[in-house]
Model the fold of this input.
Amino acid sequence: MFNLRLLLVSGKGGVGKSAVTAALAMLGARRGLRVLALAMTDDLGLASHLGIDHLSHRPTEIRPGLDAAAVDRTRALDEYLRLQLHAPRIAPLGPISRGLNALADTVPGIRDIITIGKALYEAGSTEWDIVVTDTPPLGQLGSYLRAPQVIAGLVPVGRIRDQAASMEGELADSHHAGLVMVSVPEELPVVETMGAFNELTGLIAMTDVITNRMLARLPVSEEKLATIASDPHREAGLLHRSLFSSQQQWRAQLPQGPEVPYFFGVHTPGEAAALIAESLEDQV
Amino acid sequence: MTNAILIAGGGGVGKTTIAAALGVAAAEAGHRTLVLTVDPARRLASALGLEELTNQPNPNPKQQGLYAAMLDSAASWDAIARRHAPPDVAERLITNPLFEAVAHRFPSGQSYAAAEEMVTHLESGEWDLVVVDTPPAAGGIEFFSAAARMRELVGGRLLRWLTGARLPGRRGLFNFAGRPALRLADALLGGPLLEQVAEFLFDLRTTYDGISAKALDIDAHLGRAHAVVVTTTDAGPIREARRFYQEGLSPALVVFNRSLPTAWAGEVEPIEDGRAAAALNHNLNRWGVEVRRQTEVQAEFASRFPTPLASVMWMPESPVDLESLGRLVVDAHDLNLKLLGI
Done:
């Protein structure tokens, strides 16, 4: 996956996609690549997993080889107007900017294409070997990836339409961009992952499905457990066994791919990302 | 008066399950209860009696007084247009592709549609209790500000920005002369689309009076409702839970889902006999570490925020029948239904 220029990391909410994004970015940097970790929405998940308080729109170096940033809606629109449409700079919070932002929220596809456009723009920059994005959850991913088509359908002519056509091509180019889906072996995440798998075919190459929070087998039979007198030992054993067997069932429905173990007692988001990176080291 | 319970929280924490479980417990206690749900797993939907995902209240065949319905945002946007716009404008809005896009993509749209549906049920006089599984956007916080945002959307500010200071008739919307902002918008979208947008906004503005009145109504109901924040001890869900307080909201109850028995973290004598001993000691040890982490996260949360906390035990499979949904409430710790008016 590290031979691509753009890696979109997504998954159902709560499966650990920000932690996996941070882990993949750290792995890339460890392998000598110049990496940009980019949050496509400005929530704080990615920042905390990278061990920092806050991400800004302008990429900031966190450690050698690893920069991070978060797409800021207003500034991304401003950038888009200047870089792609050659418009003059506008005051970030002035009335023109507010109006254009409201417009971008009303017309389908505009906000999405500006956001995904930012990721593609950075992926095309010579500053980075690879851009790893913390992408909105699977439920919203389709509208980002389909934005170029939506624009093409709505806007008959003009620069934004030409832009959209070239973005569609870049996203679909399996040598350029790929999607990493993060899942956990439970009903809803698995159903949603497989649904997305079908829905997004053709829009972007599926690079990998990473299964997070896998429990290891407990080598004690249920019959044996029933004979254990110590309540905590027996109950913890039974919970572990039944969680494990339920996980195996759902895991079987996901494609082959890297697995991340369940980490017990991990306190900080940064610690979690480091452990995930370590476990993925030999798998990606 | 109908009591409302709003279930909110980050993605993947088990909101829908807990909404269903509270609904079952309330119906068992004799309250005529409606559960409004967003995106249930198939088996949970069928446990609620929603074999077909409909937005009409469906009686549960196995539990008297329990009804469930889906919050269908697309269908309710159509209803919003029909309710608040003149008939001919409503039809034009519903068939406008921009309307569909706004219905699906305007960040507060789904939440507003859900809030209107909720209010309709709260005011119907048919229910003792309505339990609302809030839409997932932004951890459910948005549900509480959706009415204000919606009013702003239809309020015509963007339209005035596009068309100049005053609201014109449907014809002759634009005067590009001396309006650099409009030239930028034109560069972004092109003239024909811009005109389409303005016409759409013009139609949408006819809903303003209705939506303004409804927004006040929604806010009044939200102010009276019991909000329940569901979280786990993971960093993401905790961050979402904290945002409630940062936004000045005060939940009635915070539920920590996927909790583990605290006894596992205590001083437990290792077992010594037999081949399984090493594996079981190791297993209890790692789960004990997890329990200590959970306890610390909960204690930290409790020290910061004054809301009563409850915990729901971690179950290997999420409950998908009425009996286990009912048991979830019984087995929970400190889940005081009186705090929620049940």
